[in-house]
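Batch job 17 of 40 flagged for manual review because the log was empty.
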Amino acid sequence: MLSFEEKQKEINKLKLKLLNLTNSPLYSYRVSKGYKPVLGEGNLEAKVMFVGEAPGESEAKEGRPFCGKAGKVLDELLESIGFKREEVYITNVVKDRPPDNRDPFEDEIELYSPFLDKEIEIISPQILVALGRFSAKYLMQKLNLEKFLDSISKIRGKVFLGKGFGGKEFYFLPTFHPALALYSLSQRKFLEEDFKILKKVLEGSFDRNKIISYFKEEKKGQLNII
């Protein structure tokens, strides 16, 4: 287990490496627009890590994840369960903004995902929350949960137990991207429901029998997050 100082040092190394990722197909676009690469931010000792897809324009301008309108929704969702964003860690799979806010390509996910893998290794959270279908797909593949992969509308709000990133077990909760709440009140309600589930997992009060595990036989005992 890394100390706080060691974690900060490793994160700074990642930031420098990302800044100089000249082999990225998004690097020239970043430079031409005057954008910044966007690594995660938040509590380096966080129990919960939120993983989005890729930075939007506001994020690329400021070099911070979820600092635009979708970020405001995320802040409100966190507050609804008694959390502040300073208590969690927030990041994306892809660390540079794709042109025209398009979906990230597979080769971009492949290039940038080692940065996410390293962030997970450094922060070592207990719960991973996927915000959107791209991060849900990537994380489920890495957590030995690929057999349960489905559309985000079908897997959202479910709690999984996965294993990956160095053989560690994580609770995993996929949900919609907060940006959807900007266009649909019903999507906002789904997000609110999913965050209530997240709170239960954190409190250890979520029904163990409803957890979908990477292995056939469920482990016995109570949830022990805090």
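Reviewer: the log was empty due to a logging misconfiguration, but the result itself is present. The longest strand covers residues 168-175. Unflagging and moving on to job 18.
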